[in-house]
Amino acid sequence: MGIKLDGIERLTALEKLVLVGRGSKLGRDFRQVLSPYPSGVLPCPLLSTIYCYWSASETRDIFRLVRIRSSAGRTLRKLSVPTSSIALPADIASCVSYVGSLDIPTDILDVDAVGLPRFYFLDDE
Fold this sequence. Notes:
By secondary structure, the chain is α/β, with parallel strands linked by helices. 22% of the residues lie in helices and 16% in strands.
């Protein structure tokens, strides 16, 4: 509660971000601060990995951030939601194409409601 994110854009060498906590606006605040709007300059340009230990609503905002940063030319290398206690947003499948590696607990992958796309590799030979 009451966390100020002013100045995070000055962390130009930030590569890994670990987000822990709960708050009704934390996800939205991080999304706004780490997006290139309104200045057009992408804060923390080296950010490549986010570990997200939050609630589903806050995680949804991080997925939006991932899409925004990808559209700005900075695709995350890894997004990790390392706990199965977080209910993932229904639109998680739409995030797959915006991040190099989406790491979620394997027990969640067995839930049909998540709806992750399946990938098949065909041998050309």
